[in-house]
Amino acid sequence: MDERLRKSLLYDFYGELLNEHQKAVFSAAIFDDMSYSELAEEFDCSRQAAFDLIRRINNKLEGYETKLGLLERFSKAKDKMQELSNAVSEMNESVNSSDIDKKVKNQLITGLNDITSMSAEIFEEF
Fold first, then answer.
1. Contact partners, residue 96, CB within 8 Å, separation at least 6
2. How many distinct helices (H) and strands (E) make up the chain?
3. Within 13 A of 55's CA, how many CA atoms are on the CB side?
4. Is the confidence at residue 51, as pLDDT, over 70?
5. What is the model's pTM?
6. CA 43 – CA 29 distance, rounded (Å)
7. 26: which residues sit within 8 A by CB, 6+ positions away?
8. Phi-psi bin for 10: left (phi > 0), alpha (psi -120 to 50), beta?
9. C-alpha 26: how far from chain center
């Protein structure tokens, strides 16, 4: 996973556990792509202080992930959802290309589409 994406996802999962100043600085660094010099100017501190704060916030977010593992669980669920979606698509193609009764075919396709929809809803709630 791309490092920037990982930091963004860690912030999404654990950002509310940071104080307001940490949120503002990290958000500016990650989402606004500000350099340490720009952060120093924006938050009235030295470049080294901005660097240290970002490093401490990264360590804090990684620590939360080590203890709680939400990002890892999310990634695994996403992978399983993709596998399920691929399997349903393959089954859908098989049903469409088979020589079965049209009514039965429609029921199977409807059932497969329902499985996909329910799975997506469950994943969305994650």
1. 105, 109
2. 6, 0
3. 7
4. yes
5. 0.77
6. 11
7. 11, 15, 18, 54, 57
8. alpha
9. 17
DSSP 15-56: GGGS-HHHHHHHHHHHTS---HHHHHHHTTS-HHHHHHHHHH
Give the pair of three-digit tokens for residue 85. 């979606």
For the segment 4-39, what is each residue's pLDDT rounded down to a tens digit? 999 999 999 999 999 999 999 999 999 999 999 999
Angle at 119 between CA 113 and CA 122, to 5 degrees: 145
CA–CA separation, 70 and 13 (whole Å): 7
Distance CA 80, CA 77 (A): 5
Which residue matches tokens 């860690």?
10
Amino acid occupying residue 16: E
Using the structure block, give the residue that is written with the tokens 């920037």.
4
Q: Which tokens in the block code for residue 91?
A: 């089954």
Report which residue type is found at 109.
I
